[in-house]
Design goal:
By secondary structure, the protein is mainly β. It is built from 1 helix and 20 strands.
Length: about 260
């Protein structure tokens, strides 16, 4: 509870560590991605499992996001041949559509929604090449952009939708110039106009439309930083230090959305 700081629910079910957590648009549901190769959807009110998302061959989840107003979900991860992939599930118009309303007690009774793997580009050979080479990835908040660290470059891809408004593939839109070496984490800003790139040299802030460098954060000790996230207004950056367990808030005083369009 945000006011009392009391634990409302403990979510149990994944057999490996978590890689990503996302709320639905109305806050009534929570999606958790795991290195066990599944995404679980939970009710935030009581912690009950709504459904479990798995797909044939999906071995590990890196990141995920809700799309189409929360009726669909995109998931990035690795398949059982350790190749990068993007999968999509149709969830329904509301969290109440995601399950039959019964409490899920164990894996034997889990209701699973079947997803499908998406193409990352139009050419099958190129799609396979990308799948073998991606090291780090992230999705924009609406699923309209995919960013990947691919062959020592950072590339931004945009979603190509079918006539029925279902995402069918991703098309290459931009290669970010002069990227730092050893990139290990990527994050889009809430409005998807900025890309945060974490490397051993610090954190760079790039324009997603042009790839131009907007800000370079030198004061962040990147050595033990394992998680970071920009604030909704883009004026602050929150970092988590795995060694000290410190959560730090950095003010991005030299960059604001109003000054750099």
């Amino acid at each position: 509870d945000a006011e009392t700081l009391e634990c409302v629910a403990t979510l149990k079910g994944h057999s490996a560590g978590l890689s990503s957590i996302t709320y639905s648009a109305d806050g009534s549901a929570l999606a958790t991605g795991s290195y066990d190769g599944s995404v679980r959807l939970w009710q935030t009110a009581d912690g009950n499992v709504l459904t479990v998302l798995r797909c044939r061959g999906m071995m590990m989840v890196f990141c995920h996001c809700f799309t189409h107003g929360g009726s669909r979900i995109l998931v990035c991860g690795l398949d059982d041949r350790r190749r990068f992939g993007v999968w999509e599930w149709a969830l329904g118009s509301a969290p109440s559509d995601w399950s039959d309303g019964t409490r899920i007690e164990d894996a034997a009774t889990e209701k699973e929604l079947q997803g499908r793997r998406l193409k990352i580009c139009q050419d099958e050979n190129e799609d396979l090449e990308v799948a073998k080479s991606v090291g780090v990835s992230c999705l924009s908040s609406d699923g309209g952009r995919l960013c990947i660290f691919f062959k020592d470059s950072i590339q931004i891809w945009t979603t190509i939708s079918c006539s029925d408004d279902i995402a069918s593939s991703f098309s290459h839109a931009l290669t970010v110039p002069a990227v730092p070496e050893h990139c290990w984490m990527l994050r889009f800003s809430r409005d998807d106009r900025r890309l945060f790139i974490a490397s051993e040299n610090g954190i760079d802030v790039r324009d997603t439309a042009t790839g131009a460098l907007r800000l370079k954060l030198h004061d962040v000790d990147i050595g033990d930083i394992r998680l970071f996230a920009p604030s909704p207004d883009g004026k602050q950056l929150v970092t988590f230090d795995a060694r000290s367990c410190d959560v730090c808030i950095h003010t991005l005083c030299s960059w604001t959305p109003a000054n750099h369009r």
